[in-house]
Amino acid sequence: MFHLQLVTLTGIKYDDNVSEVILPTLDGQIGVLTDHMPLISVASIGVISVRRNPHDQDQQMDHFAIYGGVIEFENNNLRVIVDEADAADSINEAEAQKAFAEAQRMKVEAKDSVSLEHAQQLVDRSAVRLQVASLKRHRQR
User: Fold this and answer.
1) Residue 51: what pLDDT?
2) What are phi and psi of 38, to 5 degrees?
3) 101 CB contacts (<8 Å, ≥6 apart)?
């Protein structure tokens, strides 16, 4: 077991001992287990998946949508610092679907590179929220 702390601008979203964490990085997903080598990395937009106990099934994992940040692991302490993190239980799938459709519309109608970049960020954020909502739905089955 090791300690995970997920920190956002609004406070600590998760602070507990865990057995495994899967994190999105610029180079792809990485898994962290007890006694992982020291690590500092950039978190990308994606899903953090947390296995609390070694014998928990995948459907029992907790999931968080994140939008980039910093990952640090040392001495069996994993700290992930992000601007925002949305827990699966806080995401309304219907609202996330509407936001995704609106972001896609904004991307199609973008008139300049700034508008296009902003719309793409909204598309990415909405897509991650939908992914986490889908994981939550599968967990409830």
Assistant:
1) 98
2) -55, 145
3) none
